[in-house]
Amino acid sequence: MDQRELDLIAKLADAHPDVKSLWDEHVLFKKQLEKLESKPYRSPGEEQELRLLKKQKLEGKTKLVDLLHRYGS
Q: What are the pLDDT digits (tens) for 4-40?
């Protein structure tokens, strides 16, 4: 996310719980992904979890950006 979007999230988070919720979820997915991606070896289950987390993070980011465009306009 670029700085403009991050500033908008900070501005809108208090007034719009859905923005805050999606942002918190995004940060959580990012931390989980970093933890899994830092492993030198991943089991097949971890690889599946990694793919699922990436998909969930992307879906959440898409929703978040849509909300930012709606609320920020």
A: 899 999 999 999 999 999 999 999 999 999 999 999 9
Q: How far apart are the first and last CA of the chain?
A: 18
Q: Taking the CB of residue 34, how many other CB atoms lie within 10 A of it?
A: 9
> How many other CB atoms sit within 10 Å of the CB of residue 23?
21
> Which residue reads 């089991």 in tokens?
43
Round to whole Å and give the CA distance between 33 and 14.
Answer: 26
Query: Quick one: tokens of 7?
Result: 């500033």
Inter-residue contact 65 to 5 (CB < 8 Å): yes
Q: Which helix (H) or strand (E) holds 43?
A: none
